[in-house]
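Holo prediction — magnesium ion.
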Amino acid sequence: ELESVLQNQKAQKRQESDKQWDNTDFSWSTELVSKLQSVFKMTELRPMQLQTMNATLSGRDCLLIMPTGGGKSLCFQLPALVSKGITVVVSPLVSLMEDQVMALQHFSIEAVMLNADADKSTVKYVQDAMTDPKATLKLVYVTPEKLAKSKRFMNRLEKMYEKGLFARLVIDEVHCCSQWGHDFRPDYKFLGIMKRQFPGVPLLGLTATATIKVLEDVKTILNIPDCLLLRSSFNRPNLYYQVLPKPSSQEEALNDMHDIINRNFRQQSGIVYCFSQKETAEVAEGLSKRGVRSMCYHASLPSKQRSHVHQLWTSNQIQVVVATVAFGMGIDKPDVRFVIHHSLSKSMENLYQESGRAGRDGSKSHCILYYRFADVARQSNMVFTERTGLDNLYGIVAYCIDVSGCRRSRIARHFGETWDSTDCAGMCDHCDPKIKRLCNKRDVTRLCQDVIKILNNAAATNQRVTAPKVLDAWYNKGAPTLRVKEVKVASVSRDKAERILAHMLLEGYIREDFHFTAYSTICYLLPGSRAKALLAGSAQVAMEFESKASATTSPTAETATTSVKNGKTKDVKTAASKESGVRVKPVFVNKEQ
Ligand code: ADP
Ligand code: MG
Ligand code: ZN
């Protein structure tokens, strides 16, 4: 208890000290505001920008955690103008740096990028400026490799430091130094020496990754244990989050997706994220065939083709980019109205980042994820070799199989924030007043025990089972040797049975086990660490199920159609949303109990 009291006091102190960064009576405050307006032509700062600028200008090491599009760059670009000397910016991607340098030059700010192919005259110009107190150069962008590999550049930095001209070291996308993050760059590890080499230079790390694990790792790697953590909320109030059941065949999935795009997002820009490069090609073709102008984008395309696709999309000549996660950093289209995940992404972090490319202009936008149990094994096959791959994946599976909780609160919890459900304001499929779901909790202990019995039987007879085989055996189908006499034929629909398996996986009643073959990896199911307790009757499992889906007809509801596909009844309601005029189509899948 004492510990929690101490922790509370600490947190309180931290909040109080955060407050001091709000002030506008620092020696630089007047110049800061006047340059914001005269140079950047912006009227005011956004949340956390002022605090960050004040802290870094005071010489504090800081980590700024701010969602994509929040305006992290300005937090060092503006201070660079009011500081003596040069700000060095490390960034993982040449294209990101090019964009920023161009934007700065547009504002008549002297900024240069140095990478492996910089020409001699640029290199000379930068090197001279670095030690010249009268130089007008304000920002130098470098790749981490440049710092790691060019002794010459390091020597220059030392001279610059000795002359008191090393204003600040900025590390953009700072999560790249952690292996726990989602895009680890080995060269970023080298940045750990910078604090030792230049102890007097304030370091400013920027990221949109907020998980505690990554942040702690970053602090350790960069040798900044006492740095100030500055964060702005991750809530994106204009994004509507939704999970839809993914049809089992690709054709049906494409029809469904086309239907949604056509009804709600005609003529509007969007991104569809897929699981694999092959799938991006399939989906882009499928959508194009159905009349939605789409092109695919992935890392194996030649870079010329990639920028071509990007450019066609930015200029609205194509409507949709169908992409792998390679379509990411550096995308800055403001009017993306929808991001659809055709397949499960590999973590909450990824989902948030990828969905977050929608609605940067602040208008209502939709983030839709298609979930299907079979996609879990596809993803786990890919991520199980990563240190926290499966944990991260199960985090997003939990998000998907939740039938009632606010999607937004789940995202908040993931980023260590708490938002009231009122913060959602009906902007997720579970809070939306136009979608009414009735859920009830059921004890599924016996059903889960049956699953364990099937797995134990397989193990006892030296058979390996994949999830579909377990389901078959449960329905008394498939290989007779896998069926178990004392197990009653599953009394729930296949969808529910799949949800039960997913839940058991998340709770440790079963686990995945991976085997390599010559061409692929196969994912088998085994009893998990809590299986024994379950069979012994000392663990109870309760799950929430959707009992009936009913919709209140809102005054704006337009049409209601009912179509029968594969024996499943699908009620589709279309309603016009008042705020943005976007037609919302909540989809209900009414499954028989
Ligand atoms: P991040 O790096 O956090 O993803 P950026 O630094 O790229 O975000 O900024 C996103 C957009 O917001 C840019 O177009 C930038 O010009 C704009 N922006 C940043 N700060 C402000 C501000 N105070 N006022 C208006 N626009 C801003
Ligand atoms: Mg950025
Ligand atoms: Zn909600």
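READOUT: The first strand starts at residue 62 and ends at 65.
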